[in-house]
Amino acid sequence: MSLGQIIDGKAHALRLRADIAQAVIAAQAAGARAPALAVVLVGEDPASQVYVRNKIAACHEAGIISIEHRRDATLSQAELLALVAELNRDRQVDGILVQLPLPPHIDSAAVISAIAPDKDVDGFHPVNAGRLATGLDGFVPCTPLGCLRLLEATLGDISGAEAIVIGRSNIVGRPMASLLIGASATVTVAHSRSRDLPELTRRADIVVAAVGRPEMVRGHWLKPGCTVIDVGINRVAKESGTGTRLVGDVAFAEAADVAAHITPVPGGVGPMTIACLLENTLKAASRA
Ligand SMILES: Nc1nc2c(c(=O)[nH]1)N[C@@H](CN(C=O)c1ccc(C(=O)N[C@@H](CCC(=O)O)C(=O)O)cc1)CN2
Hints:
With about 290 residues, this protein is an alpha/beta fold. The chain folds into two domains: about 30-115, 3-Layer(aba) Sandwich (Rossmann fold), CATH 3.40.50.10860; about 140-270, NAD(P)-binding Rossmann-like Domain (Rossmann fold), CATH 3.40.50. It is built from ten helices and eleven strands. The chain has a six-stranded parallel β-sheet. A three-stranded parallel β-sheet has the order 3-2-4, sandwiched between helices. Strand 9 (about 235) and strand 10 form a beta hairpin. The longest helix has 21 residues, at about 10-30. It is globular and about 50 Å long.
């Protein structure tokens, strides 16, 4: 029997998106122009195409202008850097998003570093990473920001809580740890070299799994009554042998028997990523 309360990321995201739409209307009533987001997609990665389509639809619904720049996979790094430079100069563009992953011949770090930090609504630029790590205001990457919003809505104050972040990527693990430290949690960052991961995880009141390995975090790793935020999106073969299904980094059914709160996959963190992109775009526009 499942004991854990499922955290409905889709419902939280819809509420946040409605709040942003209201804020856009209010800003325009006060004389501002509509926020504008440039979305750059290079290549034909099927998942990226879906994510970009969903981001553009979410912008439209919230009254945010989106300007799509699609380029084929043969685009050179120099051409992409030139596009980013042009968007940096464009005063009608508040936010710039370059969808990842980029084709292998392009150095993603170089492209991210070329985005003006004050238009970097993905929060991936080293200046924004530094601002977050040092407690300064800046843009926070959308996925960890969405995780924090879900934790705040579910638990309220998390100061003093023991948290573990499993994974140390620049996009999720590291910024997530900074956000939790900012919220005064006691934070452990675990990774592939960590010794006795189950034991470390069992100490935590809050578990954020962002490791990219299907169902790696097991129910018996968890402290009863903890809160589990599953960032993983892994496509695996169905047991029937035909087709695939999405699973997270957490073995959901087992974990839901032990945790007090848990995000599902799909329908947990993913929808919050897109809602937080809108939040960051509104913030970029209101600073311009
Ligand atoms: N420039 C960026 N690139 C990438 C980011 C990012 O934040 N900025 N994150 C991911 C992909 N991503 C957004 O871009 C993203 C991933 C997943 C979801 C989502 O809603 N997932 C659904 C399931 C979707 C499915 O069926 O495949 C869910 O979890 O419910 C939204 C956005 C990498 N690239």
